[in-house]
């Protein structure tokens, strides 16, 4: 039996926390190890409990979710943080990603999709709600700079990426884990991981989240 994913829920609305916990309790692979009503408590619990994944709201009392995300990642970069919120402002999306969030999902997400996102993020994937990705690309001129770059232009600026690495990068942007990339491209997970590591190095970024964001900024997707 696979090891359980240790989950910390950060949400100031008790009714929503109760509802989410009831859902998660139906999935044996998930283990809700803690709950927090504000960002400050979330940071403390993350340090004490060491969850694999944190579900983080943005509009929290005492300390907001973006600041809490930043502090949690500073004290333990291995923790994956999924922003689960009703906030769809592109500035907050980019602030959350810059703070270290691995995924950004809206609260109206279907249960089965949320479970998929949790599992994928735990496996090393990044994920953006499709509606959020569209908002970021359509409404933020500083990101798309008027007109997305063509594939040829992107390739000219990043000529050291191989054709296979382009394929892998597209799948990273789509939120796929290394395992999912391997299956999609019919390669081993070890090779998929190696490609992701090479991409991170060649794009001069720190992790796959930043690689995905850079790909969006520079018009690859």
Can you walk me through this structure?
It is a single chain. Residues 141-151 have low confidence and may be disordered. Helix 4 links the parallel strand 4 (80-85) and strand 5. 54% of the residues lie in helices and 13% in strands. It has helices at residues 14-24, 39-49, 65-75, 90-99, 111-122, 130-139, 141-144, 151-157, 163-173, 178-185, 189-202, 208-217, and strands spanning 5-10, 30-36, 53-56, 80-85, 103-106, 127-128. With 221 residues, the chain is α/β, with parallel strands linked by helices. It has a six-stranded parallel beta sheet with strand order 2-1-3-4-5-6, sandwiched between helices.
CATH fold field value of the largest domain: Rossmann fold
* Poorly predicted spans: 141-151
The counted number of beta strands is 6
Number of distinct helices: 12
Order of SSEs, N→C?
EHEHEHEHEHEHHHHHHH
Broad CATH class of the largest domain: Alpha Beta
Instruction: Return the CATH architecture of the largest domain.
Output: 3-Layer(aba) Sandwich
Beta content: 5-15%
SSE blueprint:
Blueprint: E1 5-10, H1 14-24, E2 30-36, H2 39-49, E3 53-56, H3 65-75, E4 80-85, H4 90-99, E5 103-106, H5 111-122, E6 127-128, H6 130-139, H7 141-144, H8 151-157, H9 163-173, H10 178-185, H11 189-202, H12 208-217
List keywords for this structure.
Arc Repressor Mutant, subunit A; 54% helix; Rossmann fold; alpha/beta; 2 domains; 221 residues; 13% strand; six-stranded parallel beta sheet
In short:
With 221 residues, this protein is of the alpha/beta class. The protein has helices at residues 14-24, 39-49, 65-75, 90-99, 111-122, 130-139, 141-144, 151-157, 163-173, 178-185, 189-202, 208-217, and strands spanning 5-10, 30-36, 53-56, 80-85, 103-106, 127-128. Strand 4 (80-85), helix 4 and strand 5 (103-106) form a beta-alpha-beta unit.
């Amino acid at each position: 039996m696979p090891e359980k994913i240790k989950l910390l829920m950060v949400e100031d609305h008790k009714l929503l926390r109760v509802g989410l916990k009831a859902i998660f309790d139906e999935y044996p692979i998930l283990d809700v190890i803690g709950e927090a009503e504000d960002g400050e408590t979330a940071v403390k619990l993350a340090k004490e409990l060491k969850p694999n994944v944190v579900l983080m709201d943005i509009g929290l009392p005492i300390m907001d979710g973006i600041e809490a995300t930043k502090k949690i990642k500073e004290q333990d970069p291995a923790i994956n943080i999924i922003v689960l919120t009703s906030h769809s402002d592109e500035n907050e999306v980019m602030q959350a990603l810059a703070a270290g969030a691995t995924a950004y999902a809206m609260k109206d997400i279907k249960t089965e999709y949320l479970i998929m996102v949790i599992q994928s993020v735990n496996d090393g994937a990044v994920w953006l709600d499709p509606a959020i990705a569209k908002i970021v690309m359509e409404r933020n001129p500083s990101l798309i700079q008027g007109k997305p770059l063509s594939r040829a232009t992107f390739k000219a600026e990043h000529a050291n990426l191989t054709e296979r690495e382009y394929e892998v990068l597209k799948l990273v942007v789509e939120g796929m884990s290394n395992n999912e990339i391997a299956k999609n491209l019919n390669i081993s997970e070890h090779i998929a991981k190696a490609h992701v590591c090479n991409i991170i190095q060649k794009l001069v970024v720190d992790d796959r989240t930043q690689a995905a964001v850079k790909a969006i900024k520079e018009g690859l997707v």
